[in-house]
Amino acid sequence: SYELTQPLSVSVALGQTARITCGGNNIGSKNVHWYQQKPGQAPVLVIYRDSNRPSGIPERFSGSNSGNTATLTISRAQAGDEADYYCQVWDSSTWVFGGGTKLTVL
Amino acid sequence: EVQLVESGGGLVQPGRSLRLSCAASGFTFDDYAMHWVRQAPGKGLEWVSGISWNSGSIGYADSVKGRFTISRDNAKNSLYLQMNSLRAEDTALYYCAKGRGDGYNLDFDYWGQGTLVTVSS
Q1: Cβ of B116 under 8 Å from any chain A Cβ?
Q2: Is the per-residue pLDDT at A66 higher than 90?
Q3: For every residue of chain B, which 3-state class applies, written as one string?
């Protein structure tokens, strides 16, 4: 089965840029989606199809996908961006989530 | 405003059954695929099952295949998950999620708040 690998944690200084990676075999050939989950809340879609932002998601959130790595980039990180982030792909008629990355804003 | 409200969770003994429901509003329910996603305490997200707009396409995670059944009633704007032969490892918060389109191979653009299922004797 297809596997997605994310770092357990990423830290970023307030106002700086955070990058969260999602690794998978030839993931660049797939559509990658990203979800943000704050403590005690349901997940929220922040990026779909590699680099598209749903309405209401700040432009500070962007995504890219190439080769074996997809990346979620959060520019000018704010305290409110602290959350768990999950990548997701569709593979072999099933949905696969990455293990999640905890983003800490210092 | 899109709203997804799950219900039906609770404490159940191993081997027993439970039926979850998700009431949808704020969008044309029968235009979209729907999903169940679960999250065990302190763990990540796991897709459980998905169903296309007309129930013509249905999929399950290997971990629940043969035990869980997803269904929908478009007349009632409702999604269901029948869970049989429950195991301790099925303990989780179960989320209902809306697909972006009519097939269940598109991302999930709205999520409910979840209903907690605890399997324990």
Answers
A1: no
A2: yes
A3: CCEEEEECCEEECCCCCEEEEEEEECCCHHHCCEEEEEECCCCCEEEEEEECCCCCCEEECCCCCCCEEEEEEHHHCEEEEEECCCCHHHCEEEEEEEECCCCCCCCEEEECCCEEEEECC
